[in-house]
Amino acid sequence: MRTEARVDLAAIRHNVGALAERAAAGAGVMAVVKADGYGHGLVPTARAAVQGGASWLGVAFLEEALALRAAHIDGPVLAWLTTPGEDLRPAVAAGVDLGVYSRAELADAAAAGRTTGVTARVQLKVDTGLSRGGAPTADWPDLCEAAAKAEAEGGLKVTGVWSHFAFADGGPDHPTNSRQAAVFREALAVAAAAGLQPEVRHLANSAATLTAPETHYDLVRPGLAVYGLSPVPQLGGPSAFGLRPAMTLASTVALTKRVPAGSGVSYLHRYVTADDTTLALVPLGYADGIPRSATNVAEVQLAGTRRTIAGTVCMDQFVLDVGADDVHAGDEVLLFGSGAGGEPTAQDWADWLGTINYEIVTRVGARVPRTYLQEER
Ligand SMILES: *Cc1c(COP(=O)(O)O)cnc(C)c1O
Questions:
Q1: What pTM was computed for the model?
Q2: Backbone phi, psi, residue 271, to 5°
Q3: 205 in contact with ligand 1, CB cutoff 6 A
Q4: What is the DSSP secondary structure assignment for residue 80, as one 8-state letter?
Q5: What are the angstrom distances between the C-alpha of 218 and each of 64, 135, 203?
Q6: Ligand 1 binding pocket includes 37 (Cβ within 6 Å)
């Protein structure tokens, strides 16, 4: 295969098991598989997560939840981001829990419950300080009252109350975390006073799953850690938390050629050969998720050696200067992986490019086939 993102499903099963072990007593795992399983492939990843012990799956959008259902993944699923006018009925009919942030969304969910004849399962989200989704605390009592009323009228059930942290890679000691946890405790009390009895209360992302057991409640909600990457690289890499990176991005040298010293390489000649040398062409580019900002910066492993990308990353290809090394068309190029064989990791790429490991794996493009190792049926 020219290029592939190899996904080790045994690593995903292992990581979910490790997260379940980290979870406080009584807390289950909602594995977050949004964004095509953080680039690893939605359905294979979701299956592996369930096999590894996830009792819930979490996604952002309704289509993602319905794609799980279409693949006969029938366990509890929460989808948390809808816009006005979206048809909620298929998701309600499929037993997908809906994240609800406002009275308008609550009314839409109740209407979908009435028209489908299937009780709409909703999970109310309170904004504890991220200032993104969720009801502001000022509106929370009103939302809870309205939800209790809708429950009494039938067609809708509040299955969950939840929130989301603002700090992941900022570190577990950031004071915002404990402030948000306190606001969440108050919000739970408000929900209880309104008569709501949610099945699940949840707050913890990957970082809090690994470092803040007091925030685990009934479910932890990790995404990144499921894929074996560290959400707190400043505290330790994956192995420090018993995690194994699941994805290896590999390609193949398409062509090698000798060029003289002083040859300008790739668009804009941002790399110029110092000596007579061999160039190797790698058929992956920014359309495949290799950022153009990796130009002259990021490293890959080829023939046992790390090499920095030589010149501009193009849409479909980039070039390596391999000197006098014994490199040939057809040789394997490793962009990132677990690092066990000396190849870079997604964290290395994040560090080189000034971003986070989340973005490196999620942006691997649709043109890159995902292949699966250690599939369990
Ligand atoms: C993406 C997301 C998660 C998972 O976050 P990680 O940092 O990847 O663990 C959990 N909850 C919500 C609401 C999210 O959007």
A1: 0.97
A2: -130, 135
A3: yes
A4: -
A5: 23, 21, 9
A6: no
Q: Report the residue count for the chain.
A: 377
The DSSP letter of residue 184 is: H
Domain 247-373 has CATH 2.40.37.10: yes
The residue with greater pLDDT, 167 or 230, is 230
Indicate the CATH number for domain 9-225.
Answer: 3.20.20.10
Residue 157 among the catalytic residues: no
Q: How far apart are CA 135 and CA 146, in angstroms?
A: 13
Residue in 157, 227, 257, 267 annotated catalytic: 267
Residue 286 Cα to ligand 1 middle (Å):
25
Strand blocks (E) in the chain? 4-8, 28-32, 56-59, 77-79, 97-100, 120-125, 156-162, 200-204, 219-220, 247-252, 255-259, 264-265, 271-272, 277-282, 299-302, 305-308, 318-323, 332-336, 370-373
CA of 305 to the centre of ligand 1 (A): 35
Would you give the DSSP letter of residue 266? S
Ligand 1 atom at minimum distance from 38 CA: 8
What's residue 376's pLDDT?
83
Cβ 144 vs Cβ 122: under 8 Å: no
Could you tell me the distance, in angstroms and rounded to a whole number, from the CA of residue 226 to the centre of ligand 1? 11
121 lines ligand 1 (CB under 6 A): no
34: annotated active-site residue:
yes
User: Strand, helix or coil at 247?
Assistant: strand
What digits encode the pLDDT tens for the residues 217-234?
Answer: 999 999 999 999 999 999
* Cα of 221 from ligand 1 centre, angstroms: 7
The domain segmentation of the chain, as residue ranges, is 9-225, 247-373
Q: How far apart are CA 112 and CA 85, in angstroms?
A: 12
